[in-house]
Amino acid sequence: MTHPVAIQFRETDPAALAAREGAIALLVDPGAGLGAAGRRLDKLARGALSRALASEAWGKAKPGEALEIGYPAGLAAERVMLIALPRRAGVEQARKAGAAVAKGLGPKGALIVAEGHPRAAEVAFGLALRAYRFDYHTAEKPGFGPVEMMVAKPEEVARRAAPHAALAEGVFFTRDLVNEPANILTTDDFAARLAAMQELGLEVEILEEAELERLGMRALLGVGQGSASPSKVVVMQWKGLPEEEDSCGVARPVAPLALVGKGVCFDTGGISIKPAAGMEEMTMDMGGAAVVAGVMRTLALRKARANVVGLVGLVENMPDGAAQRPGDIVKSMKGDTIEVINTDAEGRLVLADVLWYAQERFAPAAMIDLATLTGAIIVALGHEHAGVFTNDDGFAHEVLKAAKAEGEGAWPMPLTPAYDPLIKSRLADIKNTGGRWGGSITAAAFLKRFVKDETPWCHIDIAGVALPPGETTLAPKGATGWGVMTLDRLVRERFEPKEG
Ligand code: BES
Ligand code: MN
Ligand code: ZN
Q1: Which atom of ligand 1 is least distant from the CA of 274?
Q2: Taking the C-alpha atoms of 237, 240, 243 and 246 in order, what is their torsion angle to the nearest 10 degrees?
Q3: For the whole model, what pTM was predicted?
């Protein structure tokens, strides 16, 4: 369903401008004005560009924003886009500039005149991310035409753009999974797509219900017991580091980073059923698992020098005769008993067992879980930021820093013991809801109970950012793939050895 756009980098050739069809986009530093190719275009278009640059609209254009000239005389192009991009622009602004070109991209493609712009590769990446498409329309839609970029040093830009291919593929993998409807992306189908990643060098194991039962994952299994789709846990291992000698000279694998994802393929709410309005959105309730899958794909594609294990709990939350009831008490793999007050607070039940399993099996150096966990996080942060909860402020700082560098909104949320009494249960060790207030915090407090004190851990509630109601800068309406870029950067900066 994806339509990746391959971008050709080539040397600036002013003679090719007059005949170029489709769109011509020019990166213009508002402080510096037109370059050689721009002046040539301006001349062909009889001064249309310099008039546009003198306009009030151009004066208001922020970095990454475009001013369009339609059907300019003297050119074969349908439109010329002047894109404001200072030479000192940041990564986010450069990607936004590329996205502006992608938005109007048609069958005739586009030519971007970047000349010696230092952010040319980031512009290309922004274009690729925004040119993603996903739908089941049966009418043929014209594809995207060729995209070329004129730059001063094509080889150098191509070299800097190369790592973006693995990242874009991871983001698209995540978006496809989130956009896919639940009749197609069943737990079986999801697991099969993950198993296919073995081709990339990932080790993938699928734990089926009998095995989960044996492990004592009754919290996770309870959620899926009303569904015709079998519950599963999928473990994906990327081993990018050689073993290290311990103090006794014995070779041991380096402890991995563990990524854990909520993979509720559809969330009806179960017996505590959700209202009909908007329920169709709950095809995205596997968004956390999709981010974990996308990151693992990127790490494998770029052969990351880090040990990372991705674990996803795949279930479907359905009401039927076998479904879990409000009031049921289940025993988690950890051994703690849980009173299920509301079957719609299912994500935390799934994560409780997968978090515990991840720690028991891998003793990770750090652990991050991602989940479309609560509507309350959308009340708190809207669709602009994911909520970050932690037991280790230093580790959370690294995660927030990576998110900021990638332009993905993330904001710290509190997680102190003050919230623990809200999830005390009269009958069991803990209950799965904490009442009306602070809903995303009591959810995080629930998860914290399944995290060992010695494991640096972040919980990221992505309910608001996985599938926002409209388009975003780098994604058309639908799934964003939020988090893949952040986690890839975190792995690079925090878990891979420095070059040299
Ligand atoms: N999957 C939902 C959370 C959600 C809501 C994700 C909106 C994306 C958009 C989760 O399983 C859920 O139903 N949470 C409940 C918890 C409540 C019953 C304590 C909620 O947020 O209402
Ligand atoms: Mn729910
Ligand atoms: Zn859910």
Answers
A1: 13
A2: -90
A3: 0.98
